[in-house]
Design goal:
The complex is a heterodimer. By secondary structure, chain A is mainly alpha-helical. Chain A has 10 helices and no strands. Helices cover 75% and strands 0% of the residues of chain A. In chain A, helix 2 crosses helix 4. In chain B, helix 1 crosses helix 2, helix 6 packs across helix 13 and helix 13 packs across helix 18. Classes of the chains: A mainly alpha, B alpha/beta.
């Protein structure tokens, strides 16, 4: 966004409607940070909204001339961390082990996020598009078309275990691809 | 190779949401021993989450703007409310229906409670934290948008603060005649030393009177001082108090802190009225002197607020001068009428937060007294001169410990954002059924005042049994002890029961009473004292570990493994342990259950950096089990 600081100055001066543009511009970045850090994907939209509401309320603390995306990202991390804590505290018995496992790797998740490229969701799209053959089919079917593993196995005429292995490798490949992109940014 | 395959399979199943209980345990065990596995799971979990997020519809600017308007961020744009006669009528009808519903629910819960614990009596009590508890206990599925409601912000991002009852303004007034004169004619007064008395040689490392002397006593030049943010604010309470010390001694301490610990902080001097209320700007208020002093009611109120918000006050009695010591105690008593000042036990973190003084000091530990609120010592009085007086290695080590303690707590409060806030106590009374006695013994016997109410709230939600509580502070010799089916004993410090208390507790337990005791923050002084005293209470019934198969660990929650605080994890070498409870069985069931590790901090959802205890959710689950055991056996 051109003249970001100017837009923020106008918002501070009372032209609050311009804030919608800021949201549209940075929504993807914020959603990526929130999504990577919170365990419950259903809460992503609410938490993303909350980040922008918090940022609006604290807009006075942003210093023009500094890095606005980084400032916003810090707020996103704080909001996500709060949500994460809340989720662990309130988790039900059934989710106990799952939550425990994720709780155990929280520091590593935060480190992984540090290595991600700034435009994470765009980079992810690119990484997914590089997958080929069955990996691409499985990835699209599982994540974008909500097809269960059994259905995918049936359609691709392979066993369910093979689908899981393909999915696993595809995730690993995407992870490496994202990490490489993150390093390139640095 | 097969290990690798297993690891992959576990991680795959985890990500696909197909992990069974047994497999989940295997995964946990794997993660505990392998950092590589943690890294792999973390990367794959992030990829999985990003993939799920990438297909979600973006949150539009329009949606956020709508939420902001709804939340009142733009008052000018907020829709105006219209009140009509029809609307008012509907509102009144809804209110009547709600009241009728609440009464009906109350009746149902009375019947339910009676079924579970027929011996529990109905009394009136007071639960001032209902709104907070409701917010805490809300389940994720029910919490559509906000988790905790605050008046000004419908979308809550801050964790729940520690809540303290507010004192009325009148509480900050003197209730006893103020000291007459400056105290210089009183017994125990020690005059400030004259300039030059304590000068050492240039090296500043000479032994003097058997004590290693640190730092030359020449005035410090400002350019030699560490920079960085402010740690100490030297409170200027009158020029006559200082003699030649105060800021000079603190400067030595700050330099030592920089050299030894690598932390760079600086010092400021301000008058009591200039102190910033924000502990971030002035974490420690340091007050030293020799003569009587007093604060105004406004200053007392401001200092109390400062301490509850995360700040610390240190009163350093110059050369043990009694008038200053008496004034410090008097001021703290007025500021904290709801807490008592206690001598800090050897297990207090101030004695080991950086240097383990108990091991290193041959001449015994220094006498420190403090006021502790929710496990944090917010005010400290040093009788023998904390940094003032001799600039000995021992004094500096104690000073470094104080700084480490304050910095650790400051970081904790900042990261968790759980400063204490004051509330006005609710006047509303509730009909309660489970009567719990908080046992008053020596020392800080109520370190976590809201732990039990919060646990009871989660218990009611977990078991769908509405149990409101009446928590009564009770001494063991109180005749009403036998009306209380459940006693809770907690604390930090050691204690000793009188013969009358021993007899009463023994009779109480033999008659079917239940005692749950807990070493708050896992403090060893309390632990040792409790074991000794319990042996005196029930000499023929030793305390034994509660078996993992006992219903205490299985009903209503199956608690097999618990994560622990970083400090306990460091001591045990493991982050996850089997829960540890001990108990005494009388007539076939546990009459005493004891946790040597801290749980109450977790029930308040604000465990602290110096706690040897469990983490939040696990301790709540175990606490629910203990309550269930107590009300059903």
């Amino acid at each position: 966004m051109e003249n970001l600081d100017q837009t923020i100055a106008q918002i501070r001066a009372g032209n609050s409607d311009l804030y919608g543009k800021i949201v549209d511009e940075f929504e993807g970045k914020v959603r990526a940070v929130v999504a990577a850090m919170i365990p419950d994907p259903n809460r992503i939209p609410d938490m993303t909204q909350e980040v922008f509401i918090t940022a609006y309320r604290r807009l006075d603390s942003y210093r023009p001339g500094t890095n606005f995306p980084a400032w916003l990202s810090t707020i996103a991390r704080n909001v996500a961390q709060n949500e994460r804590r809340r989720w662990y505290r309130q988790r039900e018995k059934e989710a106990g082990f799952k939550a425990e496992a994720i709780h155990c790797v929280e520091p590593q998740i935060d480190r992984v996020m540090d290595d991600m490229p700034e435009d994470t969701l765009d980079a992810l799209k690119d990484c997914v598009s590089r997958l080929q053959g069955k990996s691409q089919d499985v990835m699209q079917g599982f994540y974008y078309k909500d097809q269960p593993l059994v259905e995918l196995a049936d359609r691709l005429r392979i066993t369910e275990n093979s689908v899981k292995v393909i999915l696993h490798r595809a995730r690993q490949a995407i992870g490496s691809c994202l990490q490489k992109k993150g390093r390139c940014h640095v | 190779m097969s290990d690798d395959l297993d690891e992959n399979r576990l991680i795959e199943d985890y990500l696909d949401g197909q992990l069974g209980d047994a497999e989940a345990e295997c995964l946990m065990a794997l993660l505990e021993k392998s950092d590589t596995a943690k890294d792999r799971l973390a990367l794959l979990a992030v990829v999985d989450r990003l993939l799920r997020a990438s297909r979600q519809k973006p949150v539009s600017g329009e949606r956020v703007m709508k939420a902001l308007r709804k939340g009142g961020a733009f008052p000018a744009c907020a829709p105006k409310r219209r009140t009509s006669v029809f609307g008012m009528t509907v509102a009144i009808l809804v209110l009547i229906l709600l009241v009728a519903g609440v009464v009906a629910l109350w009746k149902v819960s009375v019947a339910e409670s009676d079924r579970i614990g027929a011996n529990l009596k109905l009394v009136q009590g007071d639960l001032p934290l209902v709104s907070r508890l409701q917010a805490v206990g809300r389940r994720p599925a029910e919490a559509g948008t906000p988790t905790v409601e605050t008046p000004e912000n419908a979308v809550q991002t801050e964790p729940i603060p520690i809540i303290i009852k507010a004192l009325p303004d009148s509480a900050f007034q003197d209730d006893s005649p103020p000291p007459v004169g400056d105290g210089s004619d009183e017994p125990g007064f020690v005059a400030p030393p004259k300039a030059g008395t304590y000068k050492t040689d240039e090296a500043g490392k000479r032994k003097k009177g058997g004590v290693r002397v640190i730092g030359a006593m020449v005035p410090t030049r400002s350019r030699d001082l560490p920079k960085g943010s402010v740690l100490f604010v030297n409170l200027d309470i009158g020029a006559s108090q200082h003699g030649v010390f105060s800021s000079g001694d603190l400067e030595v301490l700050l330099r030592e802190l920089q050299e030894r610990v690598g932390l760079t902080y600086r010092l400021e001097t301000r008058s009591p009225d200039e102190v910033a209320a924000d502990p971030e700007r002035s974490p420690v208020l340091y007050v030293s002197g020799y003569y009587h002093f007093s604060f105004t009611p406004e200053q007392r109120k401001a200092f109390r607020k400062f301490m509850l918000a995360g700040g610390t006050m240190v009163f350093d009695v110059g050369l043990g001068s009694k008038p200053f010591y008496d004034s410090a105690r008097r001021e703290l008593r007025i500021m904290f009428r709801d807490s008592s000042m206690n001598r800090l036990d050897p297990a207090h973190p101030l004695f080991w937060s950086y240097y383990d003084l108990a091991k290193e000091r041959s001449g015994g530990l220094p006498i420190l007294e403090g006021i502790t609120v929710h496990c944090r010592t917010v005010a400290l009085v040093s009788q023998g001169g904390l940094v003032a007086g001799r600039r000995s290695e021992e004094s500096v080590r104690l000073g470094v410990n104080v700084a480490a303690y304050v910095i650790a707590w400051r970081g904790w409060v900042k990261s968790e954002r759980i400063p204490a806030v004051e509330i006005q106590e609710s006047k509303k009374a509730y009909f309660d059924r489970l009567r719990i006695g908080q046992v008053m013994v020596g020392g800080d016997w109520k370190p976590r005042p809201f732990a039990l109410p919060m646990l009871l709230k989660t218990f009611s939600q977990k078991t769908a049994v509405s149990i409101q509580s009446a928590i009564r502070e009770v001494s063991l010799t109180d005749p009403g002890l036998f009306d209380l089916p459940f006693l809770y004993l907690s604390g930090h410090e050691g204690f000793r029961l009188t013969k009358a208390e021993l007899y009463a507790l023994s009779k109480y337990l033999e008659s079917g009473g239940f005692l749950f005791a807990e070493a708050c923050c896992g403090r060893s002084d309390f632990d040792q004292a409790f074991r000794i005293e319990l042996k005196r209470v029930l000499p023929d019934s030793p305390m034994v570990p509660v078996s993992p198969d006992d219903s205490i660990f299985t009903e209503p929650n199956r608690v097999k493994r618990m994560t622990v605080t970083p400090l306990l994890s460091g001591r045990l070498g493991r982050a996850v342990i089997e829960p540890r409870l001990e108990g005494v069985k009388l007539h076939g069931h546990y009459a005493v259950v004891y946790s040597p590790y801290g749980m109450a901090g977790c029930w308040e959802m604000s465990q602290n950096p110096y706690a040897l205890g469990y983490n939040d959710s696990e301790a709540i689950r175990l606490g629910q089990n203990i309550l269930m055991y107590a009300v059903t056996y």
